[in-house]
Amino acid sequence: AQKVTQAQTEISVVEKEDVTLDCVYETRDTTYYLFWYKQPPSGELVFLIRRNSFDEQNEISGRYSWNFQKSTSSFNFTITASQVVDSAVYFCALSEEDSWGKLQFGAGTQVVVTP
Amino acid sequence: NAGVTQTPKFQVLKTGQSMTLQCAQDMNHNSMYWYRQDPGMGLRLIYYSASEGTTDKGEVPNGYNVSRLNKREFSLRLESAAPSQTSVYFCASSEAGRGNQPQHFGDGTRLSIL
Prior knowledge:
The complex is a heterodimer of chains A (115) and B (114). Helix content of chain A is 0%, strand content 53%. Chain A is mainly beta and 115 residues long.
C-alpha cells in the first residue's frame, strides 16, 4: 500500500527566510508520480508540480524548488525568500502508474509566514 | 474557464437527512474523484470514476454513493448523514486515468451535520 508522510505539522518563519517542507513516501511500484499542492486560506487546492519516478532531476521554478531522491524516498519542497502570500497548507501526494490517478495525500504542512 | 464547479459551497444537515453534492467539469476530462478533507488527515479518496460509465470505491466509501451522470458530471450522495461525515468535500478531475496527470480541484463543499 502506498503511503505519504509529512512529518512537519506547522512551520513558522519570518518573511524572507527559506523554508523546506519534507515529504517521505512508500510504494512498491517502480513507476509512480509525486505531486505538491498548495491550499491557501481561501481553501482551494492549487497544483504546483509533478515529478515522475524515473526522473530524478531537481527543479526550480522561481522561488520554489524541489529535491527528489529515490534512494531516500523523499520529495522535499523549498520556498526561498518566503513571502506572506506563501502562507498556506502544502500537501505532498503520490499516484501509482495504474491507479487510475488516485492520489494518496500526506497530512499537509501548514506554513505561516509573518512580516 | 470554470474548471471544476461544486455545488453547494456550504450545507448544514441534521443527522439522518440525505443530500447530493454536485460536481461538474468543463475540461473534457475522463476521470473524476471525490475526496474528503478532515483536520490533520489530508485528503482521503471516497470514490472515483476512471471514465464515463464506471465508478469505484476509494479509501473511505462507507456511507456514500456516487453517480457518473455523464462525462462532465459526478455526484456524491449521502443517504443518511451522520456527524462523522462533517467535513470539507472536494471534487477533482484529470485528463486520463493514468497516475501521471495532475488533478484539478473544485473549491470544496463545507458540510456540517448536526
